[in-house]
Structures are given as C-alpha cells and as structure tokens.
Amino acid sequence: MAEELPQRQTDIGPPNYKDFLPPVIKNNYGKWKYHEKLSGGSMVHVGESGDELYTVRVASPRLVSTDFIRDLTAIADKYCDGYLRFTTRHNVEFLVSDKSKVDPLLAELKEKKYMIGGIGDGISNIVHTQGWVHCHSAATDASGLVKVLMDEFADYFTGAKELPARVRLAVACCTNMCGAVHCSDIAVVGIHRKPPRIDQDGVKKACEVPSTIASCPTGAISPDPKNKSVKIKDEKCMYCGNCYSVCPALPISDPDNDGVAIVAGGKIGSLRSDPKFSKLVVPFLPNNTPKWPEVVSTFRNILTAYEAGAVKHERLGEWIERIGWEKFFELTNIPFTHQHIDDFTIARETYRTSAAFKW
Question: Whole-model pTM?
Fold first, then answer.
C-alpha cells in the first residue's frame, strides 16, 4: 500500500472549516438528537451521546470596531474556550459546552448591554450593506436605517414579543444590492431616480470607454466619439449606478432624488412552500434622516397586519399569497401605484417565478 502523503499547506482557497469546530461539535458531527429554544437568545443542541452544546446569540451592527472584536474574543475565551461564530445575518453566537457557564455569560452580556436574541419566531438581526460609510454608489445609509429599525422592533428580536414565524429583515443601499433584499420577508433597497451625470473631461482622464459601455446591464450607454466620451440613453437607464463603479466620472448620487423602496414576501427556505423572491410594496420613500419615519411606519404597518392575520409558522410571503396582494395592500394601508405593475422590458414570467428550478 502506498504511503499516504501529508496534506500540503497552501494559501489558495479557504481553510477547512472543520479545523475551527469546537470539540463537542466534532465529536457529535452528524449525530445530533434534537435542539430546543431556551429563550429569545439561547438554545441547546443535544447529541446522541448525551453531550450538550449551548448557543447564546447577540446582535452586531455588522460594521464593527477593533475594540468590539476584542471584547467578543475576550468573552469567548472566558466562557466558551474561545469558540464563537458569526451568522449570515451578522449575529454573534457564543458556543458553550459547559452548562454552568451559560448563566454567567448571559449576565455579563446583559451588563455590557449586548442585545441578546434572534432565536425563534421574531425578527432577525438585519443583514445590510455598506451605506454612506463606505459605498460609493449608495442611495441611502444602511447603518442609519438598521439602527432606527432595530430600535423600533427590538422586542421582536429579544423575544419579548413573538411573531407567527421568523421574519428576516434586510437593507441594501442601492440596487446593485450586496444585501439579501431579494429574498427577505421585508426589506429596504436604496434607489436612484436620475441617470448618471457625465463629466466629459473626467471620462477622458479616468475611464475606459469599452469597460464603461459593457458595465451597463440595459445597454443604455453608447460611445460619443466627438467628445471622446460616452452618451446615456435616459429611457433605457434603470439608475443602478453600475457604470459609476467602473467610471468615477459618471456620478449618480443625488441628495434631492435618492431614496428607498420597500419590498416584501421573500424567503430562502423551502419548508411548506417554494423559495420566493421579494415583490415591490412601496416604490419610493424619501431619505428623511436621521430617523426615516416613513420607512419605520411602513414596517410597523406590515408587521402589525402580519402579526394579526397570519397563522402559526406561516411566513410573511405565504400569508400574503394566502390572502392575496389586494387584501395585503388594504390591510397595510399602502397605496397601489402604477410602479407595482411589472412592465419592465426584460422581465419574464415575473408573477410565476420562484427561486426553485422549473422543468
């Protein structure tokens, strides 16, 4: 038998995730018997061996400081043998294998004013994009919106109040969408409403014309040989700002016309029904900083109607499909406008499309 060679170390690709698992997970991998929720921010997994793993979840603001990370790691070293994980929605989970350390961990997190929650039937921590802090094409401020929404609906995160099922919230600061607004229960997406402005001299100095033309998903950009620049056909532009990512001489941000749209009804899971894409609910709301009262009010109307009308375990999109979109607009006091009618040139089968494969 040939001698087995040792695994070669490489810096290509991600490291093997198994190298970072807590021992209790490695020992019980694929052999978990059940799990149960203990509180709005804690749960336990029990293995066939009888081993227990306690999870304590707290929210994070996503854009975090070095001090915040050091604080998390110090807490993990103290109670979890250094083991923690970040979820896909920016929660932090402390993985505790010693039951006697769970209550002291919870007590210290409360003392440090961490928001404990996110487990069970309530809202998730809000997945979001960069916003005005980092993103060059942002139409709204993701961090500010997330702050006011979490302030308003914190009780649904901590478990003080429950909803019929989990409600995933998201914020994307533009339609290039590094956030998960396309498949979240309720989400905000920043939108521009005017085409990019063309800085003719800037295009010559800073942009590749072929790359700029190729960046437009709707073919709205064409060459302008006379000015050694580009032209934009306004009726084809969908204001995505993708060209600005390639060519900084095509700025699209506009404080007077930028704002947000609200979409609803999406989900990723296939439990009880197919995955669903979010649908437009409100075509435009202004960026009334710092509190975005119109956005918060709309979220409140949707959640209140959903809480009152949905049955247990029914996701928001499933509730909407059961009662119909006409009834949804009536219950939430949201006006139906011409923007809700999908007449986009490239759209196909929109009202029959889900994320599931169709044969």
Answer: 0.87
